[in-house]
Amino acid sequence: VTETLTVAQTSDEAGDAVERFDAIVIGAGVSGLYQVYCLREAGLSVRCFDEAGGIGGVWYWNRYPGCAFDGPSELYGYTFSKELQQEWDWKDYYSRQPDTEEYVNFVADKFDLRRHVQLNTRVTAATWHEEGHYWEVELESGERARASFLVGALGAVALAFTPPYPGAESFKGQQFHTGRWPREDPDFTGKRVAVIGTGSTGMQVIPEVAKLCGHLTVFQRTPGYGIPADNAPVDPEVQREWKESLYEAIRKEWREASPDPETGNDPRSGHDARPQMRDHRDGHDVPKEERLVLYEEAWQRRGTAKFVTLFSNLISDRELNAEYAEFVRGKIRGRVDDPALAEKLMPTIPFGAKRVPLEEGYYEAFNRDNVTLVDVRETPVERVTETGIVTSEGEHEVDIIIYATGYDTVTGGYMDIPFRGVDGLTLKEKWQEQPFSTFLGLTSASFPNFFICSPVAVCIHTPCVEWICEWAAELIVYMRERGLTRMEPTQEAEDAWGRHHDDVATRVNSGEGDEYSIFLGKNIPGKKTRRYSYAQTGPVWRARAYAVAEKGYEGFVFDADPSAPLGSSKPIPILSETATDSG
Ligand SMILES: Cc1cc2nc3c(=O)[nH]c(=O)nc-3n(C[C@H](O)[C@H](O)[C@H](O)COP(=O)(O)OP(=O)(O)OC[C@H]3O[C@@H](n4cnc5c(N)ncnc54)[C@H](O)[C@@H]3O)c2cc1C
User: Fold this and answer.
1) What is the reported pTM?
2) Is the model's pLDDT at 194 over the cut of 50?
């Protein structure tokens, strides 16, 4: 790695010294770290700020017992370095939080990224300066820093959401959100614990805490379809096969995928990137008896393979969805001893309407003597007191409250701090009017030289992190090669993207179960409804983004301010196929 990190000192209007970088990245999760890597490789000086005490983003914060992937480990890691893929061994088929946190730290050390990252540093505001074309960020400490480019890698599921229960501040016991779990594990021994929420996180934490505590009360609103993860240590033979062939096959598949950017026609759709694992038939072409046999066969497979390997229209077709939902309900009934309790746990929403949680012993936890279920649809939570949680039925006294109540997805972090763009307009003000209005999910008019770098905001699947960061870095290199110091998408380009974004959302979304979707913002009181994630696969986003680049970044306007430091850059050697050759 060529060292090109040159931090300049500049001074503000009052003459105080302010550090100046080519780029500032906010967030040191998997996205922010890769953005740092790309920009550093492009020859830019770059500083990354994260309020966390360690790197890893969600894998630093979500350290609750039971936290694990809900997608297969072998599809999660970065693909840009063959060497990295060969060196890293995943411990479990669905990597558990400690291992994933270790992975991100391993990457940071291997690529010498740590020295660019300043931890325990919350960014409290960021302001665009038209004169000189730069962003100034304000830190919680009162310090400031400046940069020509600003990347928000704040995460799509990073801003923890806690329902505003009256009286919560008066609670005398411990209370925390799963997404802000304390560094030191709480002592649950003999304690009365409440878990509020039974989504993906709730289903992971509940069986683990049940084993550790005196008594557990679970507050459930909308039952989901828990799918057994069947998690286990990775067989060394399987690990070898991943390294010998699977990683290369996935890399080739994803990098070479060339879907039609207009129709989005792309065989590589779905949660699992391996098309060979899917049954591409229309479920209706298969007789019902055979379908039921196939559901049973798939149920023997691990985790998400229980449903992603089934028909491509399993979730989108109303009839097939209802049939499969009933099949899963049958499995749940078989796991809960008390039939009346089983019915309370029974999901009635369409399968897949909410993210499908992977669990390990969730339903069996309710067979324990120390676990009680409170159905808040029947007895809503009214308030929190000094000693517990009051529902319409009475008080549940507890020592610890765990909020497994999810996130203000995609836009939450960006609305939480003032990003002030042209003429002082904040992103919050803009998005309150036009929710998540962007061009390519990545840039926004009135916010020059600013990138929103969050995987689901742009596209689904892990390699998206790499594509987004590479694309942003390439745009910066393009500007520097031409002496340009300001870029901003046009409103027309943004509006056209918005129409496309909504159009694909309508196409993939039957509308059923919408009221439960966190990606429609339904879990946050007052949040405007829009699909906040781009409802297309990664390769479709990439095809569209590179079509823009190939036309000289059509949809962007550029400018140059002679007083702005230009900085140098170089072509980025790590990207795409080069990485395949050199590792
Ligand atoms: C429990 C759980 C399981 C998941 N499982 C999977 C899975 O199996 N497969 C999958 O693909 N994805 C999974 N995800 C999604 C996961 O979020 C992404 O895979 C990925 O880790 C996101 O990385 P990121 O860098 O974009 O954001 P994050 O990891 O969220 O990082 C954002 C960072 O920004 C920092 N930050 C935010 N605001 C500020 C500020 N104002 N100042 C300073 N720092 C700030 C935060 O501290 C955080 O460290 C899971 C998420 C969770 C919560």
Assistant:
1) 0.93
2) yes
Distance from the alpha carbon of residue 454 to the mean position of ligand 1, in angstroms: 9
123 Cβ inside 6 Å of ligand 1? yes
Which of 370, 90, 408, 355 lies closest to 202, judged by CA? 355
Task: Please state, in angstroms and rounded to a whole number, the distance separating the CA atoms of residues 147 and 116.
Answer: 14
Name, in order, each residue with C-beta under 8 angstroms of 419's C-beta and a sequence gap of 6 or more.
125, 126, 152, 426, 427, 428, 447, 450
| pLDDT band at 270; cut points 50, 70, 90 | very low
Determine if residue 195 is left, alpha or beta; phi over 0 gives left, psi from -120 to 50 gives alpha, anything else beta: beta
CB 344 within 8 A of CB 338: no
Contact 45, 207 (CB under 8 A): no
The predicted pLDDT at position 379 comes to: 95
Residue 580 scores a pLDDT above 60 = no
559 residue type, one letter: D
Structure tokens at 219: 């507050």
Please determine, for residue 3, whether its predicted confidence score (pLDDT) is greater than 70. Answer: no
The angle formed by the CA atoms of residues 51, 42 and 157, to the nearest 5 degrees, is 30
Give the amino acid at 518. Answer: I
- Whether 209 lines ligand 1, by a CB cut-off of 6 Å, is no
Quote the ligand 1 centre to 30 CA distance (angstroms): 7
Q: Compare 255 and 509 and report the one with higher pLDDT.
A: 255
What separation in Å is there between the alpha carbon of 79 and the centre of ligand 1? 18
How confident is the model at residue 275, as a pLDDT?
54
Q: How far is the CA of 57 from the centre of ligand 1 (A)?
A: 5
> Distance between CA 505 and CA 21 in Å, rounded?
38
* Measured torsion, CA atoms of residues 539, 540, 542, 545, in degrees rounded to the nearest 10: 180
Structure letter (DSSP) for residue 205:
H
Q: Is the CB of 538 under 6 A from ligand 1?
A: no
Q: Is 365 in the pocket of ligand 1 (CB under 6 A)?
A: no
Q: 410: CA distance to ligand 1 center in Å?
A: 10
324 φ/ψ angles, rounded to the nearest 5 degrees: -70, -40
For the cut 80, the answer to whether the pLDDT of residue 178 exceeds it is yes
State whether the beta carbon of 54 lies less than 6 angstroms from ligand 1: no
202: number of Cβ within 10 Å: 26
